[in-house]
Amino acid sequence: MKRTILFSLLTGLLFSLNACKKEVSNADANYYFEATIDGVKKTYPYLPAAVMLDTLDVYSLGMLAYASAGSRELFSLNIGQESGPITAGTYIDDYTIEDKLVAGGFNPGTDDDALVYGAGLDGGPDPKLTITISEMSSNTIKGTFSGTFFDHGGDGPGKAAVTDGKFYMPLYK
Asked: Structural domain boundaries of the chain?
């Protein structure tokens, strides 16, 4: 139940990020969001942004970046928890912990929901989504991520291995 609430809040956070994308100006050439997906390096340089919220004693962090202007190709990462504010550290999807959610997703640029990938909703043995925040200031966030993502929005059966993920982006609170 709590994971459902966390997931709902994080989904709302992503919609907020998406709605704000035209208002955000982060032309800093030093920002990045990239990962290797099934052996292919992908970059998401357009409008990388992270938003941190504290709503109803649930702390959440959502990160989102697009492949290019006007593209549907995007990658997102989410962390939600009830145990306190999100800080620098490592967050691992553990389906057994009710008050924490570590999730992510990527759309390779399609309208077909079966081809949209998600992580953090499967209790299987594959490498779990792991997000490490190495640096967080009042206005930037930096870190790494990796894990197994599943098609059909995370329900599978198809899988994609995401490795060597890293991000540095503006942080909005």
From this structure: 2-172
